Amino acid sequence: MSDIILRVLLAALVFPGGLFVIVLGLGLKGLERRIVARLQRRIGPPLLQPFYDLAKLMRKDGFVPELAQPGVFLLAPLIGVASMSVAMAMLPIAGVYTPAPVFGDLIVLFYLISLPALALMLAGSASSSPFGAIGFSREMALMLAYEAPILLVIAAVALHVGRGTGAVASFDLAGIVDYQRVHGPFLLEWRLVPALLAYLAFMPANLGIPPFDIPEAETELAEGPLLEYSGASLGLFKLGAAIKTLVIAALGIVLFCPNGPTGALGLLLFVVKCIVVIAGLALFRVTMGRMRIDQAVLFYLKWPVLLGGLALAAVTLRI
Amino acid sequence: MSALAWLGLLVVLAGESLALLNRGDLRRMLFFSTASELGYVLMGWGVGSPIGESGAIMHLLYQLVMRALVFVAAARLIRRAGSSRVEALVGSYAAAPLTSLMLAFGMFSVMGLSPFKGSFSKFVILYAGIESSNWIVAVAGTIGSIIAAFYFLPTVAAVCFRRGEPIPARTVRFGIDGAVMLVLAAVTIVMSLDPEPFLVFAAHLAGVANASRFPEFEASWSLPILLPSAGAFAVFALGRISARLREVGAVTLAMSTLALVWATARPGDLGDLFALLFAGGGLAVVVYSTAAMRGTHAPGRYYFFLFQMIGALIGVATSHHLGNFYLFWELMTWASYILVVHDQTEDALKAGARYFLVCTSAAYVMHFGVLFLHARLGSFDMGVIAAGAPGISPGLLTLIAVTFMIAFVAKAGLFPLHFWVPEAERVAPTAISAPMSALLAAAGLMGAIKLLYILLGGTLLAGARSLPGLHLPEQALMVLGGITLLLGEIGAWRQTDVKRMLAYSTLAQIGEVALVLGVGSSLALSGALVHLVNHALMKSVLFFCVGAFALRTGARSLDDLRGLGKAMPLTALPIAVAILAILALPPFGGFVGKFLMIYACVQAGQIGAAVVMLIGGVIAAIYYARFLRILFFEPYAGPAVREAPIAMQAVSATLALLVTVNGFYPAPLLRLVGPVVAALGGQGRLVALALPPLAMHWSAGALIAAIGSVVVFFVGKRSAARSGAAAVLTMALALGGVLLEAGRYDLLAFAFALLIAGVAILNLAYSAGYMAREHAPNRYYFFFTMMVGGLLGLVAAKNLFDFFAFWELMSSWTLYLVTIHEESEEALREGTKYFLFNFVGASFLFLGVTVLAAQTHSFQFTNLAHTAALVPAAALYGSLALIFIGLLMKAAQLPVRIDYQMHPVPAPTPVSGYISAVLLKVGPWGVLKIFVTVGAAATFGRLTRDLPWAPDLMGTIGVIAAATLLYAGAKAMVETGIKRVLIYSTVSQLGYVLLGLSLGTPLGIAGGLMHAVNHMLLKNTLFLVAGSILSQAPVRTLDELGGLGRRMPVTFAIFFFAGLSVSGIPPFNGFSSKWMIYQACFQSGHYLLGLAAMLSSLFTLAAILKFAHGAFMGPASPVAMTMREPPGVMLVPMLTLVAVSAVISAFPGVLLVPVSHVQTALGLEAVQATWLGGVPGPSPWHPLGLALALGGSGLLAWSYRRLSSRRRTTGPIYSGGVIIPAGRVELPASSLYETPARLVRELLAGPDRAAADE
Lengths: 319, 1254
Fold this sequence. Notes:
The complex is a heterodimer of chains A (319) and B (1254).
Chain A: H1 2-13, H2 18-39, H3 49-58, E1 62-65, H4 70-90, H5 106-126, H6 130-165, H7 173-183, H8 193-207, H9 218-221, H10 231-256, H11 263-287, H12 293-317
Chain B: H1 3-21, H2 26-47, H3 50-81, H4 86-89, H5 92-95, H6 97-111, H7 120-131, H8 135-161, H9 175-193, H10 196-206, H11 223-241, H12 243-264, H13 270-292, H14 299-318, H15 322-340, H16 346-377, H17 382-388, H18 394-412, H19 421-427, H20 430-455, H21 459-466, H22 474-494, H23 498-519, H24 522-553, H25 564-567, H26 569-582, H27 589-603, H28 607-632, H29 646-664, H30 667-684, H31 700-715, H32 720-740, H33 747-770, H34 777-796, H35 800-811, H36 813-819, H37 825-856, H38 861-868, H39 873-890, H40 898-901, H41 909-917, H42 922-933, H43 936-946, H44 953-974, H45 978-999, H46 1002-1030, H47 1044-1047, H48 1049-1062, H49 1069-1083, H50 1087-1112, H51 1118-1121, H52 1128-1146, H53 1149-1161, H54 1183-1203, E1 1208-1211, H55 1234-1243, H56 1249-1253
């Protein structure tokens, strides 16, 4: 019992969650900012800029609006960071890391991934700012829209693995990775191509990247839920967002292309894959404008749902 | 047949018809009427038999005397009025009572209405016709008699009863004609009392030597009949001395009659059973009348005829001689007619005349049949007839039966002769409406039973079956009964006059009994008899109480009765019992009868009959619920009123008590009825079927709660605190009772019982704070505790009867009355809607339970699995489908409109919480219980195999549950009503529970059960939080609130935890159970259902966040400014619930180990669970591990902030550089989630769009 707890804590606090994901997440964030800058023909900040930012925010005063609910207002940033750190600890890295058996399940992970959004919503609501409340409302609206396709994606993958392993559906993350190591990555499985596309569509909305940065919408809502935050709390939000990018990228990798060698080489390959994904997202960030919330909701309920449904149908009907 | 007889026949018909046409003029009417009598004489002669000739001679003699009396009296009246028009004679009685009375006496004698014997000679003629096979003579005679009634009765009514304009006083001297009149009257009396010598004389003239060839039309009267009939004269005489003496005499007489009937009653005799009912009912009416009729006009007449009626009723019941039977039948009609028109208003006379004419005409038809039987069998003795009946040809027997049935149908008020009932019962004095409805109608049905089972000795039942397509008279009874039932219920529903409503309800109840009689099994007979007795009790209470209200306030319409239950609580209490009993709700007598009747129908394969009864019951529920609501829950606006006189209260209370005893402890009544049914069944050659269990088995916990609730009601009359404490104590004792009787329950039931009592303790304790400023707390605690008692009884049920009885107890009146406690218009409307919906749901369950029991021949749960295997698949499927419909409707599942079936918003919030948390769980619990009891997967597998075309039952439940959890979840997301959000969310969560259970896999069932408990804790917490807000101000929507988080931080924290958990946020307990359900869905291949469940948890999250945002965040609204943290007595129950949830969150094994034991105990495969272990499943996980990881990471993040600058600043929110006062800029709950909310509203439009927009 105690060794499992130790293993879990180690995974969540040191590797691959905790310290590892913080360092890697912030590093990739710096990289992303650089890529974005280059694409915009700017030089961009140094790679370590996100670290500097966090250090700088440590020195700023904390601010709590007079009308806010202080408890929730201060709790929210912690939720985002904690949940993503744990989520990372649940994701296997092929050949490098396998989560403890009491830990790894795709459905638990799915709900864990929604916690940063919950944190953001609580922050917006608790801040008492109308901008924050609008951000909260938009976040929830968007979430209701993009969770439907991602559920279909998860179901399609789980059923596909389940079919292959004799169970009906397998949500065991390690099992999903193992299956792909034997049968090849799902990237190459034509039945799951629509699922991959749906997942790609899901990522920018979940991460608040254009054209789906609607809840925070700097230009109209002044970052909405984050508007009233400052100092370390704001830093935590920034940190949470950086880790989340990594987690979402990693989840995509687990679901569609976890294959890789063991040991340090495997870890390296994993990081490279993450960089590829993040570079792709950076391309999005610079080339897209922002959608209106109603457009975004309808978009997700149409195309990604259709893609996810296609994948599910293809998997279950064995066509 | 000779020409003479034909001529006579023509004269009779022509004469009677002309008399009828000329009924406006007394002189001409009498002329034609007299001429027609000559026709009878001619017919007698024309028949050509000695009996006919004797009859003709005798008729001539009788008519000479009696007509003379009529003529003399008529002449005197005409002379006085100066006109022979009947209209001119109206009110003659006031001026010339003796002559008027003599005219009436003469007319009744001439008509030959029993007990007047003027028609004795006519009977002889008709008998001669039948005997010599000249039926047409008898038919014509009968028709003639009927016509005669139609002109004589209005005349008598006009002269004696109608109150006209005062006639110019012209006195009539007594004179010689007066003396002649009296002499003639005396002769008439002599001829009536002893017609024998006259017959002998006539026979002698006709040359008949042996007088024994004539039928003996009458036998001697037995003592129980004589006593009231003769005693009536004594009471009348006493009344001349003093009114007080009359009342004492009347009560004494009624009591001695009852005692005598009791003493002479033989067990197992149908007639004696009814005689007891009639004598008992008579006593009740007499005692009631002492208060009701005090100071009214003509009490002497009233009591005289009341006793005549009682005597006649006893006579009808106990006669074994058809002649006597007929005599008392007519006497009963005649006496009751005079009682109906007692008030002598125009309405009364009109309605009374209709009643009299229908029943008398029908009786004449019966008389035809009586004579027929005698002509065939030579006797009026019922035993002889029963023995000889098989010898009569089926066709003739059917004809005879039809003639009898016409009389019984008319008296019982069955379609198509029902139309007299509502008016007659409305216009009669209330003291008489009661026996009209309770006793006389029963007499009609008793006649039918007598005919079918005794008189014709079951011959007809057996014989009619042999005629293809002609299942008379059972089919007739069923059809007529069914039509009457529906006509009555619909009619009652449309009434605004209370007495007419009750009268229509009588139609329905009598129709119901007739319908069941038509089923023709021993069970049906038992059911019919039990229900007739109970109906007599219930309906008497209803009429008596309405009479009591009318006495004090003159109330006649429903509107007049508004709130009278509050103004006269003691008087009104019995009527509440009677209403609940007549709706067939336990634990009252009506339920026992109804259950038996429905079961009898179903057992005999007459599902249609059962359905008709249930539909009727639903309509009855509509108008009786309205009645109850108007009486007790609407405000009283009138002047102060006194309680009704003690005699009235005593009678109603005694009868209501009897109804209750019949429900609680039906054994005595069944002991009375049982031998009767056995005897009748023996004669009718019915198979004796075992009665179903009809006594509710009270577990200790249920009994303590039920008794405790009554104690709480009385203890708490003055102090809210004391009633609250008593209720909590009661529930603690009930919990002790459950623990002491642990062996009685199966493990599932035991666990559920503990939760039921445990959560009830918390909610009752919470109520002590909530109800502190509310009205009538004792009533609230009474219903609440009684409802919990019903729940405890339900889970302890060991057979299908108990299952259904306690189901009704917890889900009908207790639930209804506690939900409308607020008494606001909305509460009444919504509560009534909910009550009706539950009633409909219970009706499905009712049918399903009885079908299942009838198919498996077993009520015991322990046998069901074994016996269900022997039942044909289709029948089993049908019964289970019906049961499941009932159970799902309780859980407010689709496809019926959810907003109709979900529990009402305006109920007191602790009750809402309890309903959501505990009570509605009986739906899923019942599904699991039935699933396991009938043999679990094996049985359901057989159904799927044998009925490949039918949708899989459990699978269908799963689909319904999944659709519901999505639908209700989406509705919760767009709602803004404080409680509506939570209620919709409850429905959604119930969908999860049902979905899990319906999968039938170990993981699914475990997940469903775990979620049931989790939701019990969490949703109850949320409701109690809402109650903490609502108890401080009457707010309705979230938009009115705001900023409560800083005013009540503890409450907010409680909400925050329970809300996130119920939304399925890991690592809380709500997520663990949902996770098992998701996994179970996928593992069993129902991945679409699983996806629906996963998606819906987001809806719940959206709803919870909206609630949090609207109520607790942002600037405080004006009303929120007045609120503060609730008192400790309310916080402690909430914190307890949260603490339990927290423990389960960390160690789901705490719940899962018992769940796995339950699964094993139910004979199912269990999930693997250990006390400290995690959540089982294909990839098991441990929420504690997750929590530790989250906590550790959170700590990491927290320490970053801790290490940062510790300075905190505060200030206003950013507002773009302008100063906006607090409260001016905020986003209300109703404007959240724009696009998805709009989509949901558009997609799910319809049900409650208006409510959603409010």
